[in-house]
Design goal:
The complex is a heterodimer of chains A (342) and B (275).
Chain A lengths: L2 E14 L2 E14 L3 E5 L6 H9 L7 E8 L10 E2 L5 H7 L4 E4 L3 H4 L6 H12 L5 H14 L5 H5 L8 H14 L12 E5 L7 H18 L2 E6 L2 H7 L2 E6 L2 E7 H6 L4 H9 L46 E4 L2 E3 L4 H9 L1
Parallel strand pairs in A: 3-8, 3-9, 6-7, 7-8
Antiparallel strand pairs in A: 1-2, 1-4, 4-5, 9-10, 10-12, 11-12
Helix pairs in contact in A: 4-5, 4-7, 5-7, 7-8
Chain B lengths: L3 H4 L4 E11 L12 E12 L4 E5 L6 H8 L7 E6 L2 E2 L5 H8 L2 E4 L13 H12 L5 H14 L16 H13 L5 E5 L7 H18 L2 E6 L2 H7 L2 E6 L2 E7 H6 L4 H8 L10
Helix pairs in contact in B: 4-5, 4-6, 5-6, 6-7
The chains are: A alpha/beta (342), B alpha/beta (275).
């Protein structure tokens, strides 16, 4: 396996009326080619801001620190680039070609007064200048077919509002994949960032979109960064998951291991608070997700944590080893592991 | 043959409710346009103390049905009875008396509270309408009491909605619905705008309030896992009709209608056993 993208100490700061906030705070992880990482968190955990930082789409005034190394197209370490240090021109070339993103609400991400096919054609032309119109049309249809859009020729002539929510999401996936990294029609961007792509969809449509993403991963070797608040969804799509809270990764590891044996009290709490088909005693996490303008001095989860210790208020704990590829940001990791083993 | 218990009229009874809207066809469509049925021939009964959940995907007609049951919109045809009394024929004081027994909790605690009103005014407003002769102190006591019941302190009275988190705002919305001590509460997607950790707090609160205030719930939701936590009975809607109805346990574990089966099969399952 080769590393496709490596984040080191990524930090994003935004100005607000009550001072600078840090929606992404010292985030590091690596994503290997073909892997699927689920970034899980509740509102305000900074997961969307992290995606926008990688895309170079942060709001004006944002400050960003750290490194985000994307491997070169040939895989050689020497040709890798730091996404955070690109010029605007290099960034525009990278977006769509190397990294593409799909959003929660395709209706706001698509242009409402432009036919679906024309929007996909625009994405293709932006990266492959000099193609004939016939070749662009062919690639538009190929892209829609790849996203399993039925009647692609008809859909290409329609406007976004004429499509159902599920079809709009498929059209956006087609557009995201259309401008892929090499110049052949069967290429795809190397990294697809999906930000809550199924949250606005009905559960039966969500299932179809998740199946489509799984199939695209198999067929195209796509690397996926999947952002969601839904632990059930992440269990379906991710090989590994990273749980975020107040801008930081608090737990990361193989998806099934983290969900079956959570080592951070927040992950465990989220699981106990998630409604399941079987009625069980829900155990809510007390309190609220903290405001980024008023974070506690120590561990950000300490005020809501049932296991809190006096030293938790002093400093944010480091990520500690909880298994071969499993880490959790809690001083009690060893105790929790012992508890699980019993 | 009717036993004594079934002789008691249900709290709410709907027979063959139907509601149509003009079919989408644009403003320039010629002639009499076709109409689509948002709710088509729906009958249901709600017994005091139970929690009936109406489950369906977008466009299934569940919200239209809920609004008709509260007579927030009028059905085209059908019958609606509250404890045997004809709800659709009621007017004036009779209608107001029935209305105060039935209150609604909304999905979006950000949109459903007037941002310019203080919490004390928001929660007390139903009292101003239905009990205008209430004294100032008594009114304040009633508001404080219901706020306490939903887990909010007296200090909330003079603050504005924007000062509260989503979960706290939903508590305020619930307090406003309960201040008249209704018997029936219709909750339309009460947790779908909230974070999971906070949504669980609201579900637990709804359970406790049902016990403490002897409430009957009609829960509208797209989420079977949410419904599973509260419902005693479930009705599954598709295309304006109830396609399957039964005890919650039976619908969740042994659904018979293909649509219910597909809904359950589509739910992403956590790879853990929660005892």
């Amino acid at each position: 396996m080769t590393v496709l993208i490596e984040l080191r100490g990524l930090t994003v700061e935004l100005p607000t009326p009550s001072g600078w906030i840090r929606p992404v705070d010292d985030v590091s992880f690596t994503l290997e080619t073909g892997e699927s990482l689920g970034l899980v968190g509740e509102s305000g955990s900074g997961k969307s801001m992290l995606a926008l930082a990688l895309m170079g789409l942060l709001p004006p005034g944002a400050r960003v620190r750290g490194e985000a190394w994307l491997a070169g197209a040939n895989g050689a370490a020497s040709s890798r680039v730091n996404l955070l240090a690109l010029s605007e021109r290099e960034r525009m070339a990278t977006r769509g070609r190397d990294i593409a993103m799909i959003f929660q609400e395709p209706m706001t991400a698509l242009n409402p007064v432009m036919r679906v096919g024309a929007q996909i054609a625009e994405a293709i032309r932006a990266h492959c200048a000099g193609l004939t119109n016939a070749e662009v049309d062919r690639r538009v249809l190929a892209a829609l077919e790849r996203a399993a859009v039925p009647e692609p020729a008809l859909r290409a002539r329609q406007y976004p509002h004429q499509l159902s929510g599920g079809l709009r999401q498929r059209a956006m996936i087609a557009m995201a994949l259309a401008a892929g990294s090499t110049s052949t029609a069967h290429s795809a961007p190397r990294l697809l960032i999906a930000d809550e792509p199924t949250t606005a969809l009905d559960v039966t449509v969500q299932k179809q979109i998740l199946e489509l993403l799984a199939q695209l991963r198999r067929d195209l070797g796509l690397t996926l960064l999947f952002i969601t608040h839904d632990l059930g969804v992440v269990a379906q799509v991710a090989d590994r998951i990273a749980v975020t809270y107040a801008g930081r990764i608090v737990e990361e590891g193989p998806a099934l291991e983290v969900l079956a044996r959570p080592c951070h009290p927040y992950t465990a709490g989220l699981l106990r608070a998630s409604p399941q088909l079987v009625r069980h005693k829900l155990e809510p996490i007390p309190g609220n997700v903290p405001s980024l303008t008023a974070l506690p001095s120590g561990c950000a989860f300490e005020p809501r944590c049932a296991l809190r210790q006096p030293e938790c208020t002093i400093a944010m704990p480091e990520l500690r080893v909880a298994g071969p590829q499993h880490r959790a940001r809690c001083i009690l990791v060893e105790d929790i592991l012992e508890e699980i083993a019993r | 043959m009717q036993t004594t218990s079934t002789m008691i009229a249900p709290l709410l009874e709907a027979r063959n409710l139907r509601k149509t809207f003009p079919a989408p066809g644009g403003a320039f469509a010629m002639g009499a346009r076709a109409r689509v049925a948002a709710v088509d021939d729906v009958s249901l009964e709600l017994a005091a103390g139970e929690t009936l959940a109406i489950v369906g995907e977008s466009g299934s007609g569940k919200t239209t049905l809920a609004r008709m049951l509260l007579r927030l919109i009028e059905p085209d045809s059908g019958e609606l009875r509250v404890e045997g009394r004809d709800f659709l024929a009621a007017s004036g004081a009779g209608l107001r008396a029935l209305r105060r027994e039935m209150q609604m909790v909304f999905q979006d605690p950000f949109a459903s509270l007037d941002p310019r009103m203080r919490v004390g005014t928001i929660v007390g407003e139903p009292l101003d309408i239905h009990e205008p002769r209430l004294g100032r102190l008594e009114r304040r006591d009633r508001v404080t009491e219901i706020l306490r019941a939903v887990g909010m302190g007296e200090d909330a009275l003079t603050r504005y909605p924007h000062e509260f988190s989503g979960g706290q705002r939903q508590r305020i919305g619930i307090a406003r619905a309960l201040v008249l001590r209704p018997r029936l509460v219709v909750a339309d997607e009460p947790v779908s705008a909230l974070d999971v950790s906070v949504g669980a707090q609201i579900l637990e609160l709804l359970q406790n309030l049902q016990r403490d205030f002897s409430l009957t719930y009609l829960l509208i939701s797209h989420s079977l896992p949410v419904v599973a936590q509260l419902a005693t009975r479930i009705a599954v809607m598709q295309g304006g009709r109830i396609v399957e109805t039964g005890a919650a346990e039976q619908i969740l574990t042994a659904p018979t209608h293909p649509y219910t089966q597909s809904l359950i099969a589509a739910i992403p399952v956590l790879p853990v056993n929660i005892e």
